[in-house]
Design brief:
This protein has 227 residues and is mainly alpha-helical. The protein has helices at residues 3-32, 43-53, 83-86, 91-108, 112-141, 144-181, 187-223; strands at residues 61-64, 71-73, 78-82. The protein has one domain (3-223). Helix content is 74%, strand content 5%. The protein is elongated.
């Protein structure tokens, strides 16, 4: 297969899939942002309720600017909700808030994939900022050892992406359980919550797929003819 064919399969297809998943999460979030949550609880209130129910009163819930910027910070043990989630009482805000609290519960229970992901982060941060530079230099100089080192660094980035998948899926699973146990989401609302979380999960699948196929592309192009 030509390098162009490899490029299309390994990079082009995942790119298209990634763009579709980004559209999917944005459209699904927007759709369910128009559907009120029956309890009238805002995203911040949902997060606080679940945290307190799990004995995590010391974990703060903070508002952050932007949209879809929601995250849990394990360094400060804090839940951060975007403006459209923090103060809104909708199916989307309920789903996202519960998902982020799912990460806080994982942290409290020392969920193994999350611990591995946290341990990988320093290496991943270094690798993310240097692998491409080293790969370009290695390719220009014909330095095979440098190319191999760059690909190994990128493999660490790919591993981080793969470990992220069970972390995200498990957080969504925990979110659904908490919402049902606390009676925050009725069966009809739970269906909407699942759709929001499933569309969000697709973005992580797309990211992992793109990273993995790009790694395969580099291995085949730079190392395939040297064995």
């Amino acid at each position: 297969m030509s390098n162009l064919g490899l490029y299309v399969i390994c990079l082009g297809v995942p790119l298209v899939f990634g763009l579709w998943t980004q559209h999917k999460i944005k459209s699904t979030f927007a759709r369910y942002s128009e559907v009120p949550e029956d309890t009238g609880m805002t995203g911040a209130e949902v997060a606080r309720r679940i945290l307190d129910h799990n004995g995590l009163q010391g974990v703060p819930v903070k508002a952050v600017p932007g949209a879809l910027t929601d995250h849990y910070d394990p360094r400060t043990r804090s839940v951060h909700l975007s403006e459209p989630v923090y103060g809104a009482a909708t199916i989307s805000s309920t789903a996202v808030a519960a998902h982020e609290v799912g990460h806080a519960i994982q942290h409290a229970k020392s969920y193994a994939p999350m611990s591995i992901r946290s341990a990988l982060w320093p290496v991943t941060a270094f690798a993310s900022s240097t692998w491409m530079i080293l790969l370009l230099i290695g390719a220009l100089l014909g330095a095979l050892n440098l190319i191999i080192f760059a690909i190994v660094l990128y493999a660490a980035v790919v591993l981080f992406q793969l470990v992220t998948l069970p972390v995200e899926f498990d957080a969504s699973r925990r979110a659904g359980i908490q919402l049902r146990e606390l009676g925050i989401a009725n069966p009809e609302e739970s269906a909407g919550v699942r759709k929001v979380l499933q569309s969000a999960a697709l973005t992580y699948v797309a990211g992992a797929l793109a990273a993995l196929t790009q790694l395969l592309y580099f291995v085949m192009v730079f190392l395939g003819n040297r064995s």
